[in-house]
Amino acid sequence: MKLLILGATGPTGRHVVDLALRSGDAVTVLVRNPATLGDLAGRVTTVTGDATSQHDVSAAMAGRDAVISALGRGRSLAAKGLFTRSSAAVIAAARETGVSRLVWLSSFGVGHTLRWSSLTQQLMYRTLLRSIYANKEIADESIRTSGLDWTLVYPTRLTNGPAKGSYQADDRLPMRGNPTISRADVADFMLRAAHSSEWIGRTAVISD
């Protein structure tokens, strides 16, 4: 499969790239600074640009079979419009290029998934993560109504631990306390979803 991966140099995106390369996929990445690719240089097709620019995303998306977005704000608690602007660029580029398959990383507790969260989770989502989650909610709704073959992925709290391969994935999962999932397992799910029609038009909640 020919994949465009957004957020490829981030902690989750890098796992997606590594897994995709190991599975034999042809990987294109859109990055602002190719120097950040490190040992990926030469192993992926690199397009220099910004994920919030329709022009740049279209250039990277043309000829691909699917798009996987693992964009994030790192340790920042301020959204700065990243998710709304990048989702708008991706949707417009998808329509321009005819690439309809999109797997998009969100966060558990965004939008309607908040009502399934535990009290511990809700406290964090409504305080520390309020700005980012509000921006993600708008972006997610735009994707749902885009007409694309989308999958929205809602992981619980991300960790940098190793993949377990035994995570749970469903449209809804019961929550207690503050459950976690490794970025490696999230990447595994996202790549599998891109290769399958099972999760098209669905919200995937994933957790250990």
UniProtKB/TrEMBL annotation:
Name of the protein in question: NAD(P)H-binding protein
InterPro entries linked: NAD(P)-bd_dom, NAD(P)-bd_dom_sf, Polyketide_Oxido-like
Residue span(s) of domain NAD(P)-binding: 7-195
Superkingdom field: Bacteria
PANTHER family according to UniProt: FLAVIN REDUCTASE (NADPH)
Listed GO MF terms: biliverdin reductase [NAD(P)H] activity; riboflavin reductase (NADPH) activity
Lineage of the organism: Bacteria, Bacillati, Actinomycetota, Actinomycetes, Kitasatosporales
